[in-house]
Design goal:
alpha/beta; 13 helices; five-stranded antiparallel β-sheet; 384 residues
Length: 384
């Protein structure tokens, strides 16, 4: 006999327009996930990093209007913080009559004190019990990665979420990124010297593997909105003190720059998000030209090196060539060390490729070394 589903007092948020917007956006994103599924056969779809499409497979930005597509089974990435707690409450409201639609996925990492990590896990499990949503936990290790610990933690977190989604047949993996995260991301990438892709910000939907996609239905609301939703539902959340560490770029922007921006420019997050969408559309257009050039210019390709016809590259525009070189670096580096591949680095590489000088040149971009000769441009994986 099936256990009765717990009841939860959703009345305070049932008619909230922000909540309705998130639900509508989630349904629309679910319709995109359904439409984009490569194969109904799930066997063997857990891909290694080198076989995944990375960020090059990001879907086009959503149109201004949202849809009302039917939901697909969704894994909610829930850390226990205010943002993911709010997302859980919103989607639980949307699925109150279809309890099998949602799964909570909680990832435990070793960058927090074990007692604090356990409090996070206990909070998520308690919330899952109160809402009648199953909770699945996975553990990852990343603190021994040194300066790459944060990027490694992010990559392993998505790998773990992918595994949970696979095990529990959840084509959509919902994360709680919101408008303030978008603002912070665009500013951080701008300061680091990112190109079009980086300045596109956080994509509403990104394919993680052929049948599983990351979706972000909360990009249209703010961090304050998320906190307010939790308070309206009288629901506590956990606070990760590592988010207060000002030695981290995102925390520095969040606690020092962002408040000043919001005080002066009330709709800053909204306008930055709009600008990011415009840049994303431009990036998609440039990327399509770069992909065509890539296929036309490639002479030899393997997991260790890629050789291109330099004469073909000479015929292209610098901005297209920049996107092509980023694609080559992604293919060889498996998305590792991409934070080192800034726009100035790419610009110096492009200058060398387009120069009339026929001498051999060597340039390092992250974990990829480029050798430029009179006729060829060869990118090779290196162990920098």
């Amino acid at each position: 006999m099936t256990e009765p589903r717990p009841t939860f007092p959703f009345d305070p948020i049932r008619h909230d327009q922000r909540v309705r917007d998130v639900i509508s956006r989630w349904r629309h994103l679910c319709s995109q996930v359904r439409a984009s599924s490569v194969s109904p056969n799930r066997a063997g779809n857990v891909l290694s990093a080198q076989n995944r499409p990375h960020d090059r497979a990001d879907f086009a930005p959503l149109p201004a209007q949202t849809g009302t597509g039917e939901p697909v089974r969704t894994l909610i990435a829930c850390s226990g913080g205010a943002d993911s707690t709010a997302l859980t409450l919103i989607l639980a409201l949307a699925c109150r009559n279809s309890p099998d639609t949602l799964v909570l996925g909680h990832i435990v990492h070793d960058m927090r004190e074990p007692s604090l990590a356990q409090q996070d896990a206990d909070h998520v499990h308690a919330m899952g019990t109160a809402l009648g949503i199953p909770v699945v936990t996975r553990s990852i290790s990343c603190k021994d990665a040194g300066s790459n610990a944060e990027s490694l933690a992010r990559a392993r977190r998505y790998d773990a979420l992918h595994d949970i989604a696979y095990d529990h047949a959840c084509p959509a993996i919902a994360t709680a990124h919101h408008a303030d995260d978008q603002l912070e991301t665009v500013l951080m990438r701008l300061f680091r010297g990112s190109g079009l892709k980086g300045l596109s910000g956080i994509a509403p939907i990104r394919r993680l593997s052929p049948d599983y996609s990351i979706i972000r239905p909360m990009l249209g609301i703010s961090r304050a909105d998320a906190v307010n939703i939790c308070r309206l539902c009288n629901t506590d959340w956990q606070h990760d003190t590592t988010n207060d560490d000002l030695s981290r770029s995102r925390a520095y922007i969040r606690h020092t720059l962002a408040p000043l921006i919001h005080d002066r420019f009330e709709r800053a997050a909204e306008h930055v998000s709009t600008a990011a969408d415009l840049v994303s559309n431009t990036h998609k257009l440039v990327q399509s030209h770069a992909d065509q050039l890539y296929e036309a210019a490639v002479i030899e390709r393997s997991n260790l090196h890629i050789t291109l016809d330099r004469r073909r590259l000479h015929e292209s525009h610098a901005i297209t060539l920049g996107e092509l070189t980023r694609a080559v670096i992604l293919d060889l580096s498996e998305n590792i060390g991409m934070d080192r591949v800034t726009q100035p680095v790419i610009a110096s590489l492009i200058d060398a490729i387009l120069s009339s000088d026929g001498s051999t040149k060597t340039i390092q971009t992250g974990f990829v070394e480029w050798t430029i000769t009179r006729e060829h441009v060869t990118a090779a994986k290196s162990g920098e």
